[in-house]
Design a protein that fits this description.
397 residues, Cytochrome p450, 5-stranded mixed β-sheet, 3-stranded antiparallel β-sheet, 15 helices, 49% helix, 9% strand, binds protoporphyrin IX containing FE
Amino acid sequence: MSNPLDFPIPRTCPFTVPDAYARLREEQPAARVTLPTGKTAWILTRYDDVRAVLASPATSADIRHPNFPAMGIGEQEAGAKSRPFIRTDPPEHTRYRRMLLPELTVKRVRAMRPAVQEITDALLDRMLDAGSAADLVPAYANAVSTSTICELIGLPKDDLEFFHDITRVSGGRGSTAEEVSAALGDLFKLLADLIALREREPGDDLLSKLVVDHLRTGNVTHHELLSTIGITVIAGRETTTNMIALSTLLLLREPGLLAELRDEPVLFPAAVDELLRVLSIADSIPLRVAGEDVDVDGAVIPAGDGLIALLGAADHDPEVFPDPATVDFRRGTTRHVAFGYGIHQCVGQHLARLELEIALETLFRRVPTLRLAVPFEELEFKQESATFGIESLPVAW
Ligand code: HEM
């Protein structure tokens, strides 16, 4: 057997997945890799294999498994303590997921549209009032996504930096278990204070509903509720921040695509899905352990081995998406797996779509002269964090 490749493989172009995925898909659709922790695991690069593994009831997402392919140095040890439900299996996983799903249906999310539009407009007013240049990541992308998740859950919106720092540490691949646990501890402290408040005086936000329907009834413990809300804040913040900033950059670099959206704003929802597919920022989020031998084109991944179902590789499989690196808003991208597949598929996907649509449509409508304020080559991308993104995006108008 050949030596395992080092994983993750950095992107050469921020707008598409690593070049090596195409060769692996052809030659080694299940390839052995060495992770930053020194452990080995398998990566899958074909659309059908990625979906099959994620749909299989034999596949485990339990972070406590010795071969769980954690990507961050301290991720497994900290995760085994805090037990985010994204890294649990049924029946435990089902119990948490059922708590959240009714609050994030298409209908519920549709009702949030006016609030998300209002948040977005207010943040844009502030950015525009402050001058004629800004870093779009903190001033807009992070602000919109953090304020929206705070609105959903019922968290105070006055300290956006606090949430930014927590996710930077908890999602950073170089963070130690102590650093991750300390960051989560800060978040849990804030959430615990808020839970205590809602126990006394419930409102009509998500946290109040979970307190009334699930904590008071004994369906979840206090720690389980903290962990569920904690992972929702973390999963819902960093992802949308990265998508808003990276999509903005892509559209600034592709004036033809931007013109298409300006001429036909009804294309925005389809554009959002195509951007999710092509950018596939959560490429290596689905970390799993094979529960039975998995046969991929003659190579057998033995039961008990760690595997990573690469969503970006699946979303760039030319068998399913011809000419995959090309952005085409008329592709009709309904089959992409940017939100995952199977029982862990993103619970926040309707909210994410709404946020992205409103954030991008509002920005380009209200700031038609928006432009990049530094040479493209100077931009720094987040190669070392759980989801791909951009550190800072200096713009002017
Ligand atoms: C562009 C934005 C987003 C992307 C690309 C994204 C991507 C994903 C992916 C790929 C998964 C599956 C992980 C796996 O299979 O291991 C997932 C799960 C999850 N996402 Fe998202 N997400 C986004 C936004 C959000 C938002 C806004 C929220 C919260 C409102 C959220 C909350 C969650 C939660 C709680 C899970 C765990 C679900 C489970 O394990 O059953 N995400 N997300």
